[in-house]
Amino acid sequence: MKLPARRCSCCPVFIQSWLDRMIASPLLSRLAVGTFWSLAGLVASRLCGLLASVLIARVLGGRGFGELSIIQGTVGMFSVFAGFGLGMTVTKHIAEFRHGDPERAGRLIGLCSSVSVLTGALMSMLLVFLSDHIASRVLSAPHLSGLLSISAPLLLLGAWSGVQVGALSGLEAFKRIAKINLATGLLNFPLMVGGVLLGGLTGAVVGLLFVGLAGCLIGSWVLRSELRAAGINVRYSGFHKDAWILWKFTLPSLLSGLMVSPVAWACSAMLANQPDGYSELGVFNAANQWRLLSLSVPAILMQVTLPIMAGGGAGISGKDRRNQLLHTLKINFAIGSLLMVVFSLFSPFIMGWYGDGFRGRWGVFIVAQAVTFMQALQSPVVAYWTAQGEMWENFMANALWGGAVIFFSWICIGKGALGLMYGLFGGFAIFGVLILIKLQSVLRKDNAVSIMRI
Questions:
Q1: pLDDT of residue 335
Q2: Using CB atoms within 10 A of its CB, is residue 333 exposed (0-12), middle (13-18) or buried (19+)?
Q3: How far apart are CA 215 and CA 212, in angstroms?
Q4: Of the candidates 302, 252, 314, which has an alpha carbon nearest to the alpha carbon of residue 95?
Q5: Does 17 score more than 60 pLDDT?
Q6: Whose CA is closest to 161, among 97, 105, 127, 209?
Q7: Nearest CA to 280 among 420, 412, 143?
Q8: pLDDT band with cut points at 50, 70 and 90 for residue 26
Q9: What angle do CA 413, 415, 420 make, to 5 degrees?
Q10: Each residue's pLDDT tens digit, 175-195
Q11: Contact in structure between 78 and 123 (CB atoms under 8 Å)
């Protein structure tokens, strides 16, 4: 898809000027096209998920919704090990090699696919083995043991899907990713809501399994089609030639991931063990659903900018990467601030949709939107880190973030869901200091502008 080179008489002058600049710049055009398709699919998927979550919360109630949240969080924690940082590895290196060395690109897809199946299967079996201990000792909810076991295959499906989406991102097949997101989003609503109505909490978990399986099957078919079009053949031999990538890039990517989902799960478990903890966790989950919706634009921009910054076969220079970083920062600031204000204004109504147990808890929602705004401003720098292959540096920054989140959550846990959101706020505030330091060092190169002039 190319941006049309035509003028629009109804557009204000400043909008037409911005469009002209975008059409004239191949870099901005790729960014705009990729963002449009990715955003369309993700927002549609997230909206379907939000509508489903509202209905699920009203059926299950605050405590049941909190229990579903901790099950998903537990799966999310184990999925870090199952995914093994392979999705980001595939994205960066497919973008780098797809034009210059398609044979190597195919070999990397084969390597990462094989490792993902292995790690996904191992983590699924480990979750089944540990389900009794986690439910009884950590979550103080022995009745959730069986549901944790039922949810274990999600780890294998998630690891497999992560490599598929990573490869499609590296190929810049954002329109196809959008269609996958749209399809899974449309399936999510009837499968999840139908599961809850038929089987309560157990039905919701089974619904998650069917959604995950459908996403993997669709993704596999789409990836094969895109690889044929790109002239890339997946190879399952000669892995030793690229095994070093697992140490240089994948391992620090995995360790960085360990500072996210496991930290979030640990904080959720901390809250679950408080008086009326699962009801509070349900409130936190409701606010967090909208936080994730607000993060759609920054997440998509990161997904789009990573393969472009990594090379993408267009001869991207260091100066191009820094210019794209600045463009993305400005977009995230504008959209992030708008969403934060609009969603915060409507927060009392939004929380009321979830039921009586959520009404009046809009303060948690507002803090969640503030956290989202900080995260939106930080994500472009994280994408730059990744594109440069500076994953060990990224890991150390994430480690500091994780420690800060746990510390602030522990201090504020007595405030329930609000305290957990304060913990996230504190963690991203600390991480923001590191981001500013990194951003200033990036902008100093090639006599780039100061942060104060962005």
A1: 85
A2: middle
A3: 5
A4: 314
A5: no
A6: 209
A7: 420
A8: low
A9: 50
A10: 788 888 888 888 988 999 999
A11: yes
Q: Is the pLDDT of residue 1 over 50?
A: no
Question: Using an 8 Å Cβ cutoff, are 226 and 172 in contact?
Answer: no
What's the token pair of residue 49? 């998920």
| Residue-by-residue DSSP string for 309-329 | HH-TTS---HHHHHHHHHHHH
What is the rounded distance in angstroms from the CA atom of residue 83 to the CA atom of residue 85? 5
Per-residue pLDDT at 18: 47
Amino acid identity, residue 341?
V
pLDDT for 14 equals 40
pLDDT classification of 235: cutoffs 50, 70, 90: confident
What contacts 46, CB < 8 A, 6 or more positions away? Answer: 185, 292, 293, 296
State the average pLDDT for the chain.
Answer: 82
| Measured torsion, CA atoms of residues 406, 410, 412, 413, in degrees rounded to the nearest 10 | 110
pTM, full prediction: 0.71
**What DSSP string runs through 14-53?**
HHHHHHHHHHH-HHHHHHHHHHHHHHHHHHHHHHHHHHHH
Tokens 């439910």 belong to which residue? 135
Instruction: Kindly state the tokens that stand for 223.
Output: 């990836």
CB 75 within 8 A of CB 155: yes
**Is residue 449 predicted with pLDDT exceeding 60?**
no
**Is pLDDT of 42 > 50?**
yes
Q: Please say whether the beta carbons of 191 and 162 come within 8 A.
A: no
d(CA 79, CA 154): 8
Residue located via tokens 């808890």? 361
Cα–Cα distance for residue pair 101/331, rounded to 1 Å: 33
Return the exposure string of 149-170: e unless at least 16 CB atoms fall within 10 Å of the residue's CB, then b: bbbbbbbbbbbbbbbbbbbbbb
Distance (Å, rounded) from C-alpha 86 to C-alpha 246? 9
Token pair, residue 263, equals: 């930290």
218, amino acid identity: I
Amino acid at 26: P
At 307 the pLDDT is 66
